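Lab meeting, item 3. Inverse folding demo.
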């Protein structure tokens, strides 16, 4: 570690990185943290703190992963190099610089790069890879992480996050790089002259917006609805505002302070639309203009948060609630328009509410469950298209990720922002809010309530403790939780479902360290370690006749498992 530190100290680093290294020269703990490893890369890409060191996001660790990608493309031949890579980025600090640096590394391998002139959402990148028939895509983002972070995500030619086979080859190539300071980078202007560095924006914006217009399926709606939108200083501003205008909504109000693109996110502690704090300024603006609906996208605009006026206050919808509302509205609209296909399917993750399954069943639409992560939903879409078995209608996960139309192959907050506005306008015409519509769903399908509890396990000891907890449940599973019998245990690492009578059946999903218990009263709990943080996540779901009963039941479940 000290050798790495000294090597970096002797390199010709940019001033801000050299200053950081000088500041920590006597701090052994900080040196260790920055240099004990290279930032890890996997199917979810690479994410980390900004700063100097091998375990930080900087131009040198960006060059390393870009070099791994370039070598992977080299292995796929000249056509792959010519088709090239589309590169997008959000508004985070250094996102633009990292995007350009990626293109410079690719250019050294004679690989064509298409780089957005301005920040654009992750789903826009997914669309553009498909539209340009590129071999791959890169987006520089750390999604909804705090301002100290940035990241690097790779997409395949189908517009979905890179599958494990491709990610593994890139990792193998990265491991062979002996010296990050010797990675070749070519001058941006020279690459432009050679046709290897291409700026893109207007044409792709137009085509993306044209595709967004195909989402509109209902003209019977109140377009006088007042909507407040905040991009939380991120990349969603242009497509969301243009899209809402094209949908006919003329009373869209921006949270002006948060419409400024700023990677320091000065108005929020955490730019995450799942958090109520992210809506504080939107609520102020909503009260000022009398808004019916508040919309918020995270910095790379792949997640959407929604708040609805309920009396004299705004109520935030959970990811599960909004997913259920969208699913019901989409299926109901298609049924009314006589466009509901006989082979329709909805896809959700194993930790997402079962309310969606009940809604899909009501419309004779199939449901498929995937592991956590939207790449698995995208994988299913590709499978359906190839096999022509199912028509994809909607995909979602409880963590505020949704997809409606498959011109994008990742969660798309822009699509969903427009659809939520349409849905709210439809119910408004009937004299209802989205809260009213949600209560109708509960009345018809039972009151569903979900909760997520995360426990932090820091360091090596914490990792061992987390492993022991999962192994304990795996080897000695309980037979009941808070007095209610368990009817089956789904062990996704072993790939098997075990029923209470002892019979088993296989799980047709990739192996993952998750255990899920399903109880006699339809309640359930799933336990999984986080893939990006030192946490164990406990997901709970219950069904009851009333909101009060559901709240009581979920408290019992949490107390029995976590506390």
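The presenter then showed the designed sequence:
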């Amino acid at each position: 570690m000290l050798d790495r530190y000294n090597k970096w100290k002797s390199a010709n680093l940019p001033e801000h990185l050299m200053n950081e290294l000088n500041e920590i020269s006597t701090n052994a703990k900080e040196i260790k943290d920055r240099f004990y490893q290279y930032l890890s890369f996997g199917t979810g890409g690479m994410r980390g703190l900004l700063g100097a060191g091998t375990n930080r996001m900087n131009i040198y660790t960006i060059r390393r992963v870009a070099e791994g990608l370039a070598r992977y493309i080299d292995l796929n031949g000249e056509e792959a190099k010519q088709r090239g890579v589309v590169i997008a980025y959000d508004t985070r600090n250094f996102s633009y610089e990292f995007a350009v640096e990626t293109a410079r590394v690719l250019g050294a391998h004679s690989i064509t790069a298409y780089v957005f002139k301005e920040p654009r959402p992750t789903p826009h990148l997914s669309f553009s890879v498909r539209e340009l028939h590129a071999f791959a895509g890169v987006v520089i983002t750390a999604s909804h992480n705090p301002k100290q972070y940035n990241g690097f995500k790779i997409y395949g030619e189908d517009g979905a996050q890179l599958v494990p086979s491709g990610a593994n080859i890139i990792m193998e190539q990265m491991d062979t790089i002996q010296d990050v300071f010797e990675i070749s980078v070519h001058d941006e202007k020279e690459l432009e002259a050679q046709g290897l560095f291409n700026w893109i924006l207007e044409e792709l914006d137009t085509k993306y917006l044209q595709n967004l217009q195909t989402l509109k399926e209902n003209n019977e709606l109140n377009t006088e609805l007042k909507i407040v939108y905040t991009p939380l200083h991120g990349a969603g501003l242009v497509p969301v505002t243009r899209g809402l205008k094209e949908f006919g909504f003329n009373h869209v109000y921006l949270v002006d302070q948060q419409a400024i693109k700023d990677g320091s996110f000065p108005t929020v502690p955490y730019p995450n639309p799942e958090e109520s704090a992210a809506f504080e300024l939107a609520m102020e603006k909503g009260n000022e203009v009398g808004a019916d609906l508040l919309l918020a996208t995270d910095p790379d605009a792949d997640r959407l948060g929604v708040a609805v006026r309920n009396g004299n206050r705004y109520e935030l919808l959970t990811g599960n609630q909004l997913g259920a509302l969208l699913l019901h509205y989409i299926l109901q609209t298609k049924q009314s328009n006589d466009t509901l296909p006989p082979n329709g399917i909805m896809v959700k993750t194993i930790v997402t509410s079962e309310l969606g399954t009940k809604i899909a069943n009501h419309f004779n639409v199939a449901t498929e469950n995937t592991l956590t992560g939207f790449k698995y939903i995208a994988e299913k879409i590709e499978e359906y298209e190839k096999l022509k078995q199912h028509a994809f209608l909607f995909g979602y996960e409880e963590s505020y990720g949704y997809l409606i139309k498959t011109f994008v192959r990742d969660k798309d907050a822009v699509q969903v922002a427009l659809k939520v506005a349409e849905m709210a306008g439809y119910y408004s015409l009937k004299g209802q809010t989205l809260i009213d519509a949600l209560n109708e769903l509960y009345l018809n399908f039972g009151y569903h309530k979900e909760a997520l509890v995360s426990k932090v396990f820091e360091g090596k000891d914490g990792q061992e403790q987390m492993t022991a907890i999962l192994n304990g449940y795996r080897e000695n599973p309980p037979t009941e939780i808070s007095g209610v019998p368990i009817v089956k245990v789904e062990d996704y690492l072993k790939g098997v479902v075990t029923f209470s009578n002892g019979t088993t059946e296989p799980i047709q999903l990739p192996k993952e360290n998750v255990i899920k218990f399903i109880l006699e009263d339809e309640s359930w709990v799933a336990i999984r370690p986080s893939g990006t943080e030192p946490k164990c996540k406990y997901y709970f779901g219950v069904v009851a006749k009333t909101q009060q009963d559901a709240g009581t039941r979920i408290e019992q479940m949490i107390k029995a498992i976590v506390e």
